[in-house]
Design a protein that fits this description.
Blueprint (H helix, E strand, L loop, with lengths): L2 E5 L2 E5 L2 H5 L43 H13 L10 H12 L8 H28 L1
Antiparallel strand pairs: 1-2
Length: about 140
């Protein structure tokens, strides 16, 4: 016996084996180019920014999402000779917000320092290995 129940915003449907024995009578609807849930890429057909695009990596919905949206929108719609040159204040606000959350938005300098230390260690290990091989 199948049944449904509501838990908060979720609707839970329990189906039995018998429920699945009959073929589905659902009809597919033709693709709607204006469907807001359809994956459209970064820019929607009407020219707006698709804030749900996975290519943004969740930046639009994080703790600095509003600052990101402001800076990205400014850049996208910028008509300046050097695109985005009129968006410095928005990008500065976004950067200041991101600095408040170093665990979510690691600074590139930290990553570069770690990478260069790793590279140096690898280089030293390779040199030591060559010396050992040459002396045997």
């Amino acid at each position: 016996m199948s049944y449904c129940r509501q838990e908060g915003k979720d609707r839970i449907i329990f189906a039995t084996k018998e429920d699945h024995e009959t073929p589905s009578s659902a009809e597919l609807v033709a693709d709607d180019p204006d469907d807001p849930y359809e994956e459209q890429g970064l820019i929607l057909p009407n020219g707006d920014i698709n804030w749900n695009c996975p290519c943004l990596g969740g930046m639009a919905s994080g703790p600095c999402g509003e600052q990101f949206k402001s800076a990205f929108s400014c850049f996208h719609y910028s008509t300046e000779e050097i695109k985005g040159s009129d968006c410095v204040d928005q990008f500065r606000a976004m950067q200041e917000c991101m600095q408040k959350y170093p665990d979510l938005y690691p600074q590139e300098d930290e990553n570069e320092e770690k990478s260069s230390k790793d590279l140096e260690a690898t280089s030293e290990e390779a040199s030591a290995a060559k010396e050992e091989k040459g002396s045997s």
